[in-house]
Amino acid sequence: MPDGREVDDKHPIKMLNDRLLVQLPNKEGERRSRSGILIPATAQMSKRLAWAEVVAVGPNVRSIEAGDQVLFNPEDRFEVEVRGEDYLILRERDIHAVAAPRLEEGSTGLYL
Predict the structure, then answer these.
(1) pTM
(2) Domain range spanning residue 66?
(3) How many domains does the chain have?
């Protein structure tokens, strides 16, 4: 990092504190509602939460693991590009729900 602005691709990246590194699924284009209404890709959805897959977690994250799906507000995020891939950085406290196979074991909660 000669000038402090570039990250060397050879170094591993470790998330700090309660931060999560997540990646949005590549769903581009139109989608359909349950009733069959076609929603164009350019449609603005206000106050709609989004799902993303957790790629890495910081040491102070307690309830989320890499590979989990998390529900969050897209407005509460920071975007970053790492090695040519786009990711989001979130705080654990900004997560509204977690979906993971490991949660099925004796858990109680809402099944979406």
Answers:
(1) 0.70
(2) 19-104
(3) 1
